[in-house]
Amino acid sequence: MKRNLLILAIVLIMSAFQAAQAARIKDIAGFGGVRENQLIGYGLVVGLMGTGDDVKNGFTRETIANMLSRHGLSMRDSAPKSDNIAAVIVTAQLPPFAKIGTRIDVTVSSIGNAKSLQGGQLLMTPLRGADGKVYAVAQGSLLLGGFSAGGANASATKNQTNVGMIANGAFVEREVDFEFGRNNKFTINLFQADFTTATTMAGIINQTVPEAAAKVVDASTIAVGLTPGFEINPAQLVAKVENINVPVDTGAVIVMNEKTGTVVMGENVRISTVAVAHGNLSIQIKESLDVSQPSPFAPKAPDGGMPSINEKDGTIMAPGGQTVVTKDSSIATQEEQKQLMVVPRGVTIQEVVSALNAIGVTPRDLITILQTIKAAGALQADLRII
Q1: What are the residue ranges spanned by the domains of the chain?
Q2: How many degrees, rounded to 5, is the angle at CA 382 between CA 380 and CA 386?
């Protein structure tokens, strides 16, 4: 009885550990063809309070003329002077399976010299895909989340005022041609390619969903289809598959950002026993100015020019109360006395962090130390500098 309870406890602990290390398929992978599509368009924002483009630039003037000509006004031979208009680029993301009439958000960005888009209204702007076809049309009032105000001698700005957004500002006018689950098959694409994770995922899918036939194609792709004799909608099969928990295996990676001094280590980072000595060298240079002010009754030099020495009595002949400024520089160097320290072998990420913290260095010094340890062959991880 006690042995059975012990076995049950071990199984529960292992299951809990595996669950803690696992993630849903929908969180670590995407399904082939199911993605967003980028849209872009060029338009005009009107109704600005004197903060728009200087219409002397060519593209804004031509855009205004083209817009007015479509409404029956000929402005080709005249130059409009209004600064209440701004030329903008409009961008949006077309969601997968978006249907005609679906509303999507758009982002509006100034491409001219407009000071602010606050209070502006975007005129009807077609949004095109990479194939040049119009997939959505945007129009509406901008929301900035900031402001800009100023006078003749002072101004105040909060956040970005040349970029705004329109929530639900575009209507989808064309659907993307895509037939999901053709021939009752689809693919799963891992966000991070890994042969171990892909093989484990295929095995768990086959065990959990009897009607699915999963096969590993490569390190990032798993092909899933229906086994013979099963009739099921591919969307229903995806709903079952995407919620399966799969253990995720990742490589040993250390990401370092020298600009900000950020160091991020992966779980599988290991370090061998190595001796490290790291001493900081600091150089300090000070510049100072010394002022020499002669007495008001100092004798003048014979020629009234630069100071000279009288050979008879040794007195300094100064040019009548002239102030002399001299420069003085001092340089000091200091090298930190660091002893050679042994960093023990770490078999867990906690042990590696504890060993590196024992050196007592800053994150920027740690970047240099990790690079040197890697060069010595004592660091079992991939260094990535961003």
Answers
A1: 37-172, 182-247, 253-281+337-385
A2: 145
At 211-261, the pLDDT tens digits run 888 999 999 999 998 877 676 777 888 888 999 999 988 888 888 888 888
HSE-up of residue 196 (Cα within 13 Å, Cβ side): 5
Q: What is the pLDDT of residues 257-298, one digit of tens each?
A: 888 888 888 888 888 887 777 665 454 556 566 666 666 555
8-state DSSP, 182 = G
**String of DSSP letters for 323-360:** -EEEEEEEEEEEE-----EEE--BSSHHHHHHHHHTT-
> Taking a C-beta distance cutoff of 8 angstroms, is the pair 192, 28 a contact?
yes
Q: Are 90 and 126 in contact (CB under 8 A)?
A: no
Which CATH number describes the domain made up of 182-247? 3.30.70
Nearest to 378 by CA among 278, 270, 266, 254: 270
- Whole-model pTM above 0.85? no
